[in-house]
Amino acid sequence: MRCTRHGPNRKGRDYVVGDVHGQYAQLMEALERVDFDVARDRLFCVGDLVDRGEASLACLALALEPWCFAVMGNHEQMAITALAEGGGMAWDLWQRNGGNWVFLDGVEEARSTMNAARPHLPLAREICAGQRRLGVVHADPPDDWGQIEQTPAEHLLWSRRRFRRDSGGSLDSTRVEGVDAVVVGHTIVEAPLWLGNVLHLDTGACAGGRLTLAAVDDILDAIP
């Protein structure tokens, strides 16, 4: 299954966080500000837990926590391929895109943690909040959420279609059918940005920006 579905959280609150990229301290500070309770609350991550930050291994290990639910990002995909091949073009690509943390933590430790985390990184997640549903993917959802299982992984992990301006200079605000809203990361924005019913939440924690954490109920209440 490409998409893992989650029922309502009847014990606590649900949150979604943008691309973490090894910024473990920033994430812990953000969770502390909302009094996140690991016994009751759930954290959903839009992917790219790793790369560009020195605490990438610690962030990757979050995928193994019972309260943390991440999706696969293109940086996890690059790391998986590079660690499996151990060199060559895949390794060079990963290193050019922030994989140098592997030398701090060790290749074998990184490979072991990634192998453990990989089964916990589906391409998509769906969160039920009462009568409303929120999708989570890394880059770009299909136009109809009902097609999530058939959508190519490349699209879900790499696409920036919504930022390709049309002839009028506008961003793509096509709404995703079959779900109330979708949260994505992948493309850095100055502030959380709605394009249709798709919320872009990567505010550049690894690039001098900040890490954005948002409550699921607040996201669903703010759908334009």
TrEMBL record:
Short name of one Pfam family: Metallophos
Residues covered by the Calcineurin-like phosphoesterase domain: 16-188
Matches recorded under InterPro entries: Ap4A_hydrolase, Calcineurin-like_PHP, Metallo-depent_PP-like
Leader peptide range in chain numbering: none
Domain of life: Bacteria
SUPFAM superfamilies (UniProt xref): Metallo-dependent phosphatases (SSF56300)
The protein, known as: Metallophosphoesterase
